[in-house]
Amino acid sequence: MGIGGLQGVAGSAEDLIREAQRLHGLGRLSEAIAAYQRALLQMPEHANSWFNLGLLFRQAHRPDEALVCYQMALNLGITEPATVHLNCAVIFADYLRQDDAAERELRTALQLRPGFIPALLNLANIQEDRGRRKEALELYRTVLELDPRCSLALARFANMQSPADCNAQLIAQLQAALARPDLTDADQALLGFALGRVLDATDAYDEAFSAYTVANAAVRANAARAGQRYDRRAQEQFIDRLITNVSAVASPNAAPARPGPAPIFVCGMFRSGSTLAEQLLAAHPGVAAGGELELLPSLVAQELAPFPESLASKSAVELARLAGTYRDAVAVRFPGAAQVIDKRPDNFLYIGLIKALFPDAKIVHTTRDPLDNCLAVYFLHLDTGVSYATDLMDIGHYYRAYRRLMAHWRTRYGADIIDLDYDHLVREPAAVAIPVFEALGLRWDDKFLEFHIADRPARTASVWQVREPLYQRSSGRSRHYAQQLASLRAYLADLP
Q1: pLDDT digits 0-9 by tens, 116-144
Q2: What is the pLDDT of residue 461?
Q3: 355 CB neighbour count, 10 Å cutoff
Q4: Three-state DSSP class for 340?
Q5: Domains assigned to the chain
Q6: Are 367 and 350 in contact (CB under 8 A)?
Q7: For residue 151, what are the contacts with CB-CB under 8 A and spacing of at least 6?
Q8: Could you report how far apart the first and last alpha carbons of the chain are, in Å?
Q9: In this structure, are residues 287 and 278 in contact, taking their beta carbons and an 8 Å threshold?
Q10: How far apart are the C-alpha atoms of 344 and 125, rounded to whole Å?
Q11: Nearest Cα to 271, choosing from 152, 137, 410, 373?
Q12: I want to staple 88 with a disulfide (CB 3.0 to 4.6 A). Which of 16, 105, 215, 437 is the partner?
């Protein structure tokens, strides 16, 4: 939960810290923050509490306040400064999109603590985001020299290999790591997904599918222990509630305009081409790639619970305030940007909210062949919270629910939802891209198709795919797994 230790803390302050820790464990962040702040009024020189308050601010998506707390902890001589610099780096990279600052923090952490594996892994991840393959690979090799059993480093190292570099030696290395009897489910998932990818790249499709199946079972076991199971009926009811409650929202056109970057939303199923769409659009000089921003889900959790029911009662003034909160957070991350892409795929759930906050917003909806899309989700190592992703038929059920909701949004918002077909895009890039740019009011230039050579971070599982020219090898991928997908194909057969 953070850096511990209550040495030198007065009794009442100690009670407040224990209360803050209890509240933190319950997920009551705002109350935990207040408890730490009261404790620090009594003992402002307690470095560990400044650090732990910084952790809470970070989790509450208040990055500037977190950085202030971390600096206080450093000024007061906290005993683990490398850990503080590591946490600062995470904020700069993930919340503020300041990769140079994040890299400086990580290198400072490594100066203070050479061989600090979490800092090496985070630095390697930044190099990946920036497309610096050589530097990232070398960092992963360094981690593996320090700890040959580091599953994360081996999995990331394997995932970075081009299809031509996926060979028998790498397969054997991953299989040997997977054979270790002490592997956790999390490590088994990391290595299993990596092995599946390498086997798929070598055309060993049956073996690849088996590896992915084992990896997904490991994720599912982890999720079950955390009480995270996909509930098909609950998902259907949530879609029903979205349709019913958002339809009851009064017209948002009366909401006053607020300054700040204009958002462009890109959403759809995971692995439907949203990263490709973002990188293509961000090739335009007036558009910044925002990546998978957490801002809408954060608003839903912190300001709109219970969602979606609460939305119907929000006034135009309240909607304008929420829109301003969103714009302010984007402006902090991308100062000076005219337009910023919010590319969180599951924001398709929030299209009604998006249109309530930003009546003029355009939504680019990425689509793909249903079987290819569902298979790609099954082959993707997602967080345990994405509980449908570990079972093909659950993915199929989620996909049908998604299509039903998108049909409703199209009926309600019409031309403001712009479909971008991944399979068509990789075959005829300009023919697909030009109408999308026109619908967004963006000037087209053929040089935008060279987005893969841009020096622009890409924070996504598709980071290395978007560093390549457009290719078609992922389109039609499901044909290699026809036998394994027979039941799913039949379940989705009536969908166009």
Answers
A1: 999 999 999 999 988 899 999 999 999 99
A2: 53
A3: 21
A4: strand
A5: 149-227 (no CATH), 234-491 (3.40.50.300)
A6: no
A7: 177, 183, 186, 187, 190, 191
A8: 48
A9: no
A10: 19
A11: 373
A12: 105
In whole angstroms, give the CA distance from residue 9 to residue 111. 31
Q: Which long-range contacts (CB under 8 A, 24 or more apart) does 135-144 make?
A: 136/160, 143/117
**What pLDDT digit, counting tens, does each position of 318-341 carry?**
999 999 999 999 998 898 899 999
Q: Which among 47, 59, 42, 36 has a CA at the least distance from the CA of 3?
A: 47
Which residues, other chains included, contact 88 with Cβ-Cβ below 8 Å and sequence gap of 6+?
A: 67, 70, 102, 105
Helices 151-159 and 185-201, interaxial angle, to 10°?
Answer: 20
Q: Where are the beta strands (DSSP E) in 290-353?
A: 339-342
* Two tokens, residue 168: 């028998």
In sequence order, what are the beta bridge partners of 364?
Answer: 266, 418
Closest CA to 154 of 202, 188, 111: 188
The tokens for 273 are: 């081409």
The answer to whether 292 touches 460, Cβ cutoff 8 Å, is yes
3-state secondary structure 456-496: CCCCCCCCCHHHCCCCCCCCCHHHHHCCCCHHHHHHCCCCC
Residue 250, pLDDT score: 55
Whether residue 279 contacts residue 433, with contact meaning beta carbons closer than 8 Å, is answered with: no
Rounded to whole angstroms, the Cα distance separating 407 from 460 reads: 27
